[in-house]
Amino acid sequence: PGDQEAGELGLAAVPGRQAAFRQALEAAVHYAKAVGCPRIHVMAGRVPLGTDRAAVAGEMETTFIENLRYTADLLSQEDMIGLLEPINNRITDPRYYLNTPHHAAAILEKVGRPNLKLQLDLFHCQIMDGNLSRNLEMYFPLIGHIQIAQVPGRHEPDSPGELNFPYLFELLESLGYTGYVGCEYAPKGDTLEGLGWLRSYWESRGLQHGGTGKAAK
């Protein structure tokens, strides 16, 4: 994430911070290898304070693409995947550079490396664009990881909000998604009690607690 005390949230698209980005990436790879995690979220970073987003967009894109190509080369040596996550700039972070799946897909196309993927957080995607079914279908070939949280409170999937997660989970299954779904939400209370939504979902799908099937489907 860079120097968070100085207001940074990622370095990959921040002009002038290329050396710090590469040093941080090497550290991230070291940590990822230690814990056996094959995916690394490559954080784009924020538009610098006091600058206009449109005015620096070109320079930030050039920096981002350069750093992502470096990232792809480094991660390919370790059989790892780099992930790009759009973060909404309407609620969560007004200055974050990468805000929509469309923008991330455009960057990935320009970089052109197979070991870079889209980390699609449905919380951010709903806030920026909605149309989740179509977006999941459209961007599915690029998706390397999914994250979830209810909108707008960013709590458990069964908390009051805009998203129908049982429908979205079944859509992911129908699309053939076999990766992890990261629960990036803030529990409203006790973490374990808050996982009741998952037990209910397993039961609705004829699964035991733990995701093992009682019957073939």
What do you see in this structure?
This protein is of the alpha/beta class. The chain has one domain: Divalent-metal-dependent TIM barrel enzymes (TIM Barrel, Alpha-Beta Barrel). 41% of the residues lie in helices and 10% in strands. A five-stranded parallel sheet has the order 1-2-3-4-5. Helix 1 packs across helix 2 and helix 5 packs parallel to helix 6. The longest helix is centred in the N-terminal third of the chain and has 24 residues. It is globular. The protein starts with 17 loop residues before the first helix and ends in a 13-residue tail after the last helix. The relative contact order is 0.10. The model has no long low-confidence stretch (mean pLDDT 94).
Describe this structure in a few short sentences:
The chain is α/β, with parallel strands linked by helices. Helix content is 41%, strand content 10%. This is Putative hydroxypyruvate isomerase.
